[in-house]
Amino acid sequence: NLETGDTVRQVGSNTKSGKFLLSLPIEKDYAAFFEAPGYAFASFNFSLKGFAESKQKYFDLNVKLKPIKAGEIFILNNIFFEFDKFDLKPESNIELDKVVTFLKENKKVTIELRGHTDNQGADDYNLTLSDKRAKAARDYLVKKGIALARIEANGYGKKVPVAPNETEAGRAQNRKKKKKILKTE
User: Fold this and answer.
1) Residue 185: predicted pLDDT
2) What is the mean pLDDT of residues 96-107?
């Protein structure tokens, strides 16, 4: 639950097909995490607010986990900032705590936290804002016991979009944080 930080459900998947079924209380916002040994976790967020009134009956997710190896880039979907600010919103702690656990379980992994922005605003301003956001996430990890030497933090501004900036949904995707594994030894 993004509001409370509580784990609402935890399920395993079928070992052959990877399929799982999960029911959740509606009218809440959620973060979802998927993990397996030897792979970096994947994360998503979604809202079930207004779900009862919709015609939709279920979400169908196809999650592909990436192996833990140098050069792999992962989107951290549950790190949130207010518009035009670099202070972490409290609901970001859930995802950042997952990164802490990942780094504690994979002691030889060094990462780069990459901050990004959408295409709104001046290039220099966006570069500075994205850098401050990456450093805010890094500082959180350091406060939780991860060595500073294991985390690079860099802002990329609007240079590397993951979606078109023509819609608000696309711009929101471009404001996400990314984690890149730099080395595993």
Assistant:
1) 64
2) 95
* 53-79 tens-digit pLDDT: 877 777 788 888 999 999 998 888 888
- In Å, what is the CA distance from 61 to each residue of 12, 92, 93, 113? 15, 22, 23, 25
Q: CA–CA distance from 75 to each of 14, 20, 32, 134, 135 (Å)?
A: 25, 22, 13, 13, 16
Output the pLDDT for position 104: 96
Q: What is residue 179's predicted lDDT score, i.e. its pLDDT?
A: 73
DSSP string, 41-59: -EEEEEE-TTGGGSS----
In the DSSP assignment, the letter for residue 149 is G
| CA distance linking residue 43 with residue 22, whole number of Å | 16
44: β partners:
32
Q: Which value, to the nearest 10 degrees, does the dihedral of the CA atoms of residues 93, 129, 162, 42 take?
A: -10
Interatomic CA distance for residues 15 and 144, integer angstroms: 33
How far apart, in Å, are the Cα atoms of 44 and each of 63, 102, 110?
10, 16, 23
Tokens found for residue 125: 């301003």
Please, which residues bridge with residue 155 across strands? Answer: 115
